[in-house]
Amino acid sequence: MSLRLSPVILLMILPLAGCSALSALGAASTPLEVFELRALAPEQPARRTRDVEVVVEEPVATGALATERIMIRPAPLSAQYLPGVRWADPAPAMLQTMLLRSLAETGAFNSVGRGPVGTRADYAVLGELTDFQAEVAEGQGAQVRVRLMLRIVREGDARVTARRTFESVAPAADTDAATIVDAFDAALRSMLADMVPWILDRV
């Protein structure tokens, strides 16, 4: 036996389906609040500029980290993203920009960029991003963890001249988006304060 709907019932159902579709479309088009982090301003510019060109490559990262969404881990093996917010750029690109600007602000090098000015640069800074998330702690707070493995490569002979893993952790009083972003900012600025002089000493 086939079920047939009367024209009156169909006229009642169609507007409801349309409202549902419009509601879903409206939710999908709601703009996300955008956050960006600050580069590190040097306490004192370099006394002299070295005739050296440095390229900062975009760090590699897994798919879960290579996104503009802000990751939060409620458990060690669980990854979620804060709703309604995002970074201005995917995390690896944002880190590249922050490190590049922080190095450029020192005035220590003739050129710092994403690519060489000529055929090749003198040194390249390569990274691998392994942690970039907020981890829910006991109670209502969280802590932000950032971990980046860096290598300095001399372009002339492709030799790795230095390598080091940098890690920084900063507490967040709660899991509110603004609080989490402030903790990311604190963790990254602390890590940049270690990375920049390390690179300056080895290039």
From TrEMBL:
<keyword id="KW-0732">Signal</keyword>
<protein>
    <submittedName>
        <fullName>Membrane integrity-associated transporter subunit PqiC</fullName>
    </submittedName>
</protein>
<dbReference type="Pfam" id="PF03886">
    <property type="entry name" value="ABC_trans_aux"/>
</dbReference>
<feature type="domain" description="ABC-type transport auxiliary lipoprotein component">
    <location>
        <begin position="39"/>
        <end position="195"/>
    </location>
</feature>
<dbReference type="InterPro" id="IPR005586">
    <property type="entry name" value="ABC_trans_aux"/>
</dbReference>
<feature type="signal peptide">
    <location>
        <begin position="1"/>
        <end position="20"/>
    </location>
</feature>
